[in-house]
Design goal:
224 residues; alpha+beta; Arc Repressor Mutant, subunit A; Beta-Lactamase; six-stranded antiparallel beta sheet; two-stranded antiparallel ribbon; 8 strands; 47% helix
Length: 224
Amino acid sequence: MSVLDALESGPATLAQLVRITGLARPTAHRLAVALERHRMVARDSQGRFVLGPRLNELSIATGEDRLLAVANPVLVQLRDRTGESAQLYRRQGDVRVCVAAAERTSGLRDTVPVGSELPMTAGSAAQILLAWEDSERIRRALRGAHFTAATLSQVRRRRWAQSVGEREPGVASVSAPVTAPGGRVIAAVSVSGPLERLTRSPGRLYAAEVLAAAGKISEALRSG
């Protein structure tokens, strides 16, 4: 459990696992490899340990994913209030996964199917999911990213992010953090749509709405 807890906030090398868990290096390695055999732990493209696919399978099997149960109606409300598609993203290793969505029902829209894996190097949701990571993880993630450390500092200060054409030309988005009861960022709520409607300053249009939606989900998780 110490190893799984250590990986909850993102990928970790063996050295980082040792530091976070306080386990002896041989013990941390033996446990991580054993968990990997059972698909509770996996490796990312850099060989770091990450949470494995079996955890998601178990979560789906129980049908009791509290975050999704709370988020889905809020995403529908966010879509209806903004008129744009709304999504919920979680980080999984080097990608972010769309785990829930409420699509705009007609007209030009940005469609992100549930289950889509998107890069952590572009988009407002990626900025949110990276902004509160430790400095070493941020430094590694910024290699090749479409945003900078200064961008993430601004995100932490105002608690929302925007992007214009980062992930896909002609698409803009606004995102805000969902936090667990302990205050850790566990997901990002987004609205996205064509640049023609969201403009080059999408945060000016929808930051307040997205912040309110993220706050509503976070509050429900605390009270649940």
